Amino acid sequence: MVSLLLVGCAALQRVAGDIVLPAEDEIALGRELSRQFEEHYRLVPDEVVQSYVQDIGELLVVASGKPRPEVEWSFRVVDEPEEVNALALPGGWIYVYSGLLLMLDSEAELAGVLAHEIAHVNERHVAERLATIYGVEVLRTVALGRDPGTLATIVGSMVAQGYLLSYSRSQEREADALAVEYTIEAGWDPRSLATFFEALDELPRPPMWLSTHPSPLARKEFIHERVAGRVIPTTLGRERYQKVRERLRAPAEVRLGMIPKSLPSGCEEAIGGFKR
User: Fold this and answer.
1) Is 57's pLDDT higher than 50?
2) What's the whole-number mean pLDDT along residues 26-50?
3) 209: pLDDT confidence band, cut at 50, 70 and 90?
4) Which terminal residue of the chain, N or C, has fewer Cβ atoms less than 10 Å from its own Cβ?
5) Which range has the worst mean pLDDT, 74-83, 120-129, 212-221, 225-234?
6) Is the Cβ–Cβ distance between 42 and 79 less than 8 Å?
7) How far apart are CA 193 and CA 106, in angstroms?
8) 66-75, long-range: CB < 8 A, 24+ apart
9) Helix H segments across the chain?
């Protein structure tokens, strides 16, 4: 019953978001922001790492029920080993920083993080917050490529702060709740998201974006409350994930030249088993 209520509320929010900023404008805006973002940041050049994250993201999109079929999802890894971060742009462009991948301990933790960002896009949180700050007409102009000044301002703020927007506490709570559902449906242990929040709380230098989010320990408790008494998957995918993480740790010349351009042994079969 709780899941059905959550889905019903989410559907209403998507309709409200579409009134605020039509989906086609949101996607065009995301495309412009993504293009500018990638001019500021270098992506990890390892095709295996990029494909691995893209595959997991796509599995979670399917698990979410694909409430936004118009979105063409993109999951990309930013080559910033000192930055623990992930962010979603309008229209389905999701970026994970390599520093976050190096911090995570399992595939299930990565799935939980990606599921949270997917939920923000599915529920139009990104579009709603941007429309509140800049106004719908300005965003439409940016989406059409006719306002490079505002585009530069948005991207510049994102690069300086490490995040695009500060969501409301209710939006963060909703994204966490949906992340649990997506992760369960995709076949990973949803408690791994709680493990991630615990590790985040223990960082000696918390990332800047954390100041705009609810307490990691409070979010950890919320995840445990969401799964209490439920039959949930226990798959962590730790061994698969460690092999991918080792590729990130390798020097660039090794990653590009000496390591075979294929998924680590067992990854293709295991990931393919989740596909529907």
Assistant:
1) yes
2) 93
3) low
4) N
5) 212-221
6) yes
7) 10
8) 67/10, 67/11, 67/14, 67/122, 68/14, 68/23, 68/92, 68/121, 68/122, 70/23, 70/24, 70/27, 71/23, 71/27, 71/121, 72/27, 73/118, 74/34, 75/114
9) 2-20, 23-40, 47-63, 98-103, 107-122, 125-134, 136-143, 148-161, 169-186, 191-201, 216-227, 238-249, 252-253, 267-272
Q: In this structure, what token pair is assigned to residue 79?
A: 């080559």
Spatial contact of 74 and 30, defined as CB atoms under 8 Å apart: no
Taking alpha carbons only, the member of 227, 112, 123 closest to residue 168 is: 123
Give the largest CA-CA distance in the chain: 53
pTM of the model: 0.84
The predicted structure's pLDDT at residue 221: 97
The residues assigned a catalytic role are: 117
Residues 6+ apart with CB under 8 A from 84: 97, 99, 100, 103, 200, 203, 207
What percent of the chain shows pLDDT beyond 70? 78
Residue range 182-202, pLDDT digits in tens: 999 999 999 999 999 999 889
Amino acid, res. 51:
S
Q: Domain residues of the chain, as ranges?
A: 2-272
Neighbours of 50 (CB within 10 A): 15
Rounded to a whole number of angstroms, the CA Rg of the chain reads 18
Beta strand 86-89 pairing with 93-97: antiparallel
What is d(CA 51, CA 263) in angstroms, rounded to the nearest whole number?
8
How far, in Å, CA of 174 to CA of 51, rounded?
Answer: 28
Rounded to whole angstroms, how far apart are CA atoms 113 and 100? 10
**How would residue 74 be classed by pLDDT, with cut points 50, 70 and 90?**
very high
